[in-house]
Amino acid sequence: MDDENKLLENILQFIRLLRKSGIKIGNQSSIDALDSIKILNIGNRNEFYWALHSNLINRNEDTEVFDQCFYLFWQNPKILQQMFNLLLPQIGTQKAPKADKKQLKRISDNIQKQNKDIEKEKKDEILFDAQMSWSNKSALNLKDFEMMSLDEIQQAEKEIKKYLNITKTQISRRWKRYDYSSKISSKYTIKKSVKNYGIINLAFKEQVKKVRPLVILIDISGSMESYSRIMLFLSHILIQHHKNVEVFTFGTKLTRITQFLKNKDVDFSLDKVGKVVNDWAAGTKITSSIKDFNFNWSRRMFTQNQRLLLISDGLERDDNQNLDFEFNRLSLFTNNIIWLNPLLRYEKFEPKVKSIKTILKYVDKFIPIHNINSIKNLLVNIM
Amino acid sequence: MLKIKQVNNIDTITSNLSKIGYISNIGLSTSIYLMLKLSKPLLLEGEAGVGKTDLAKSLSKIFNKPLIRLQCYEGLDMSSAAYEWNFAAQMISIQKGETENIYSKKFLQERPLLKSISQEKQEEFPILLIDEIDRADPPFEAFLLELLSDWQITIPEIGTIKAKEPPIVIITSNRTREVHDALKRRCLYHFVDYPDVDQELKILLSRVPKINEELSKSIIYFVKEIRKIELFKQPGIAETIDWAQAIVELNYITINPEVLESTIGTLLKNQDDIKKLKDSEASKILSTIQAEISLINRK
User: Fold this and answer.
1) What is the model's pLDDT at position B130?
2) A163 — alpha (psi -120 to 50), left (phi > 0) or beta?
3) How far is B30 from A376, CA to CA, in rounded Å?
4) What is the mean pLDDT of residues B65-92?
5) What is the DSSP annotation of A131-179?
6) Which pLDDT score is estimated for A157?
7) Is B211 on the interface with A (CB under 8 A)?
């Protein structure tokens, strides 16, 4: 019995190790893992491994971490136990310093003063904003993001939010009650009739419309550096507004960043993205990035008639012999590719570069994305 | 016929499955064993053609239980998956003035999910296969949560219908999208990967009885080499079996460029992959596998 309890305790320690390693494990899964061990022949290491694996892991990507932890822990738990002890905080070994009352009051006064200053600044700001002339605003709308200061970019972000009104929808296979439709709903008709003591009053239904899902590929190479932040901001608000949006960055490699943009706080999200993506302002390898996307993501991304937003200047540094092939393959997965290119800020822009000409063959819309007005045009007229 | 109560260890599962031609490894057999003992659903993820759906069919055979299959797709709703009211009969009843029992079981049409939990007799308790859950949309996943945790379905007009005995549930996914965590945590999880050479050889010999061992080795090693190439769609076990059957039916006794030319469509399903293989890789692979097989035979 003691041995059994010890084993169960070790399993709980192992689960804690997995959690510390970044694997999400709920309490019910832990309980199920313990139940599984009780009904198995634990003398067999393989069965033991698989019993824990099937209860604690629900993503194939976590298997490698699980394997490493399993090997470390069940090979020699004593070493890990020592490591655990080192990691645990020392509770109750030091007394908290006694607070100096005068010091506390000073700190508290300072904080209150700071808060008052911040409020006064905000009021001044609002006053200033309200006094901002119409011509200043329209000038900002036309100003290229590349030329903007950080303050102006932040103002631009506030402006962009106002235009977020995606209206293009597609019909789904679900139905909802709608009495102004022409399609009779048997289900709601019966319900109505029962309520009306058998008098049949027809009820109607229509197909639910949903916003068409979106996949965004953002070029974050050196030539796109000035636009990266605002494009990420745009992606962030699109994800917040419409859940079915997937976002990738590419420069020298492709990185999926959707999960990092889901936090409502834009600065927090962008900070996380900054840490995860490590090819900022590097070279551009469009061909290999699109190839990576085609191989590893396209079958997962384009399952519900998604549209693709490609944000890039199209200037390729990779060997682009296969660029045509990869874009051809990409176009087979989605029937709507919208290319947003900041080079269209130049009125006399002509696609002379080979890579741009190649990509253009597979694109449905080719539009600029260099200032607020262009983003407004994208959100209002195209999305 | 095997009964669930007779399953006392994992080897029983492995041996009974292999008798009917499904070769399982220790990981999968352990997950199946736990599914039976803990009465939890089993979520199988993996590429197309690795044997996820086939497992449910095989379990249905060895336990002699009916298989209820629900093929998922986008827009799948309760009326297709769980139940629907017989509106025509209800309408007639209303016309007759009988409105009191309009929402009774008399007018209830059972669909796969409700069918799986409403059986009365022991021999009718089924195996429920929810196939390709990743094709369904999130609202359908949310609907499954009640069924998978409490083995019941709530019908607003009638009440809650609870299973006498939880069905054996297998859920498959091709990972075209992430299944929600709430669904995953209610299931045991197993990723079905491509088998190793020995396992795939056993599968081939059991599924294609007419094949000789020499030819089957050539086929398995060829497929193993192909899986190392960067192909858009890797061949699964199903494709290997199809290819082997095609070669046998055409009375070929060895693999050579002529055989490849005529049968490659059963193995590779993407034109770019076929072109890639034909262009340069095929002859290289053929000489590699010949060398490998003669080395093994010498051992």
Assistant:
1) 97
2) alpha
3) 56
4) 92
5) H--HHHHHHHHHS-GGG--HHHHHHHHHHHHHT-----EEEEEEEEE-T
6) 80
7) no
Compute the distance between CA of residue A185 and CA of residue A204 in angstroms, rounded to an integer: 5
Give the mutation candidate from A38, A40, A45, A58 for the B interface (greatest B CB count, under 10 A): A58
Tokens at residue A42, please?
């634990």
The model's pLDDT over B221-252, given as tens digits with 9 standing for 90+, comes to 999 988 888 888 889 999 999 999 999 999 98
Sign of the CA dihedral running B59, B63, B67, B72: negative
CATH number attached to the domain at A214-382: 3.40.50.410
- Quick check: B43 and A58 CB within 8 A? yes
Q: Cβ separation of B27 and A53 shorter than 8 Å?
A: yes
Segment A39-56 shows an average pLDDT of: 85
**ipTM entry:** 0.80
User: From residue B214, how far is each of B66, B201, B287 by CA, in Å?
Assistant: 38, 11, 15
pTM score: 0.79
Which pLDDT value is given to residue B16?
94
**Regarding beta strands B42-45 and B67-71, do their DSSP bridges make them parallel or antiparallel, or are they unpaired?**
unpaired
Q: How is residue B96 annotated by DSSP?
A: T
Reduce the DSSP state of residue B276 to 3 states and report it.
helix
pLDDT band at A92 (very low <50, low <70, confident <90, very high): very low
pLDDT tens per residue across span B195-229: 999 999 999 999 998 898 889 999 999 999 888 88
Q: Bridge partners of B44?
A: B172, B190
pLDDT reported for residue A134: 53
Beta strand B159-162 pairing with B152-155: antiparallel
In this structure, how many other beta carbons lie within 10 angstroms of the beta carbon of residue A97? Answer: 6
Every domain of chain A and the residues it spans: 2-87, 169-210, 214-382
B264-272 long-range contacts, CB within 8 A, separation 24+:
B266/B239, B266/B242, B267/B223, B267/B226, B267/B235, B267/B239, B267/B240, B267/B242, B267/B243, B268/B226, B268/B231, B268/B233, B268/B235, B268/B239, B269/B233, B269/B239, B270/B231, B270/B232, B270/B233, B272/A329, B272/B232
Please name the residue of chain A whose CA is at the shortest distance from the CA of residue B75. A173
* Per-residue pLDDT at A98 exceeds 50: no
How far is it, in rounded angstroms, from Cα A101 to Cα A206?
Answer: 68
Residue B285 has a pLDDT of: 78
- pLDDT interval class at A359 (50, 70, 90): very high
Is the pLDDT confidence value at A95 over 50?
no
Q: Going from the N-terminus, what domains does chain B have, and what CATH number goes with each?
A: 4-191 (3.40.50.300), 197-298 (no CATH)
Paired with A366 in beta bridges are A339
Cβ contacts of B37 on chain A, cutoff 8 Å: 36, 39
Best CA proximity match to A159, nearest among A376, A377, A383:
A376
Calpha distance A249→B142 (Å, rounded): 31
Check A193 against B77: CB less than 8 A apart. Answer: no
Q: Token pair 């080979």 is at which residue? A: A354
Residue recorded with tokens 């696609």 = A351
* Residue A129, pLDDT score: 42
